[in-house]
Amino acid sequence: MNTTKLGADFENKVFDYVSSLLDSEGFMGATKTYSRIFKHKKYKCAATKREIDFDITIETYNPHAKSKEWSSLIILECKNYSHKVDISDLDEFAAKINCISKSGIKGCMVSTIGYSKTEIEQARKDHIALAVFANNDMEWYTARNTHMQTEYLMDILLGKSSVGCMPVLYNDGNFVDLLDFLQKFGAAISEKNKVFIPYYKDETIKNKANELYKKCIFQTNDIAGEVLANIFPEIKIRFDNLNDGVLGMFSFEDRVVTLSNEIINDEHRRNFTLAHEIGHICLHESYIKDHAKNFFDYSLDKIKLLQDDLIKRMEQQANKFASFLLIPQERLLVEVDKLLLITNNLKGRFYLNSQIENVKTVDMVLKKLSEIFNVSKQVVKIRLIKEGLLIDDYRTPQRVNRILSRL
After folding, report:
1. How many separate domains does the chain show?
2. Residues of the chain with pLDDT > 90: what percent?
3. Which of 16, 133, 184, 314 is the most buried (most CB within 10 A)?
4. Where are the beta strands (DSSP E) in 22-176?
């Protein structure tokens, strides 16, 4: 296949992918902002009036503006090379953008291989975003992965690692997802693809977890495993290599919980991660099962979007659910009462500060509860603080402690 055909095919795939994200249903007299996407539309140079052709452009219109021209313009320059993009391509792209306008335009270079450090530094100076999209038969997914480490993403941007199914985008020194990038620079995102996730009060999450807990008669300390086996017997568990930092995921379509090989021998993390995924099933499945095949993966022909604040909300809710499920309130209070008695503590709570005895006591308490509930000491600590059973001012400077004690 010749290089022209390869380039055109890649452009078409990028065009179709981005098109599916946009709200392009605007019309004359519309009352909301909308966007339109074009391939190889020509724009006049402000100085010379000559026309410049761009691979893909996204024009966004403000219906309340007096001018009928676009209010913001995003330009995508696609490079399907067998090597990294050359610095001259970046210089030419920046010059073409500046020729059109000095404001209201955001450029993004899209490559299949990656970029050199020199190009990354130059793009940052020119305020041009850099993206890496896989160029194969793999479907591209729109999803946020807040767990991915910067080092891992930088290796992809530099062409040292393959990009996989989720495009990587780097803008002004930060890695962002495509959806946030489009929204930041004015593009209107399709509302019909967005998912609603409700706010749950902690008490509501606790009640849901307790209801699930009470449905089982547990034979072992593997609470999450027994809940899954007894309440959701159709759901299977498997282990696999997941993206860096991702410990688990649930496929709503296949009814499979996938846990990372990273935690296969870590009982506490494995237990909590499985309970976390059960939290997604109980709290979120009814809201997103019609919108996504997978928590992190979305089909190309029916892309559904989860905003960053929704992802964070879901993760926080699933973490709280896991804590309430694995550390039931009534049982926790019983075990804490025992430990208070053993340590001759008449205050009804533990204190963690700079005093050696308190440090040793709290460490013993955390270790004991960690063994009882089959979770990490950190999970226990967070829960005790949340319940007001542990006061942690160990890291508070002593000067601040003195000031607070006078209040």
Report:
1. 3
2. 43
3. 133
4. 34-39, 42-44, 51-53, 56-61, 72-79, 105-111, 129-132, 168-171, 174-176
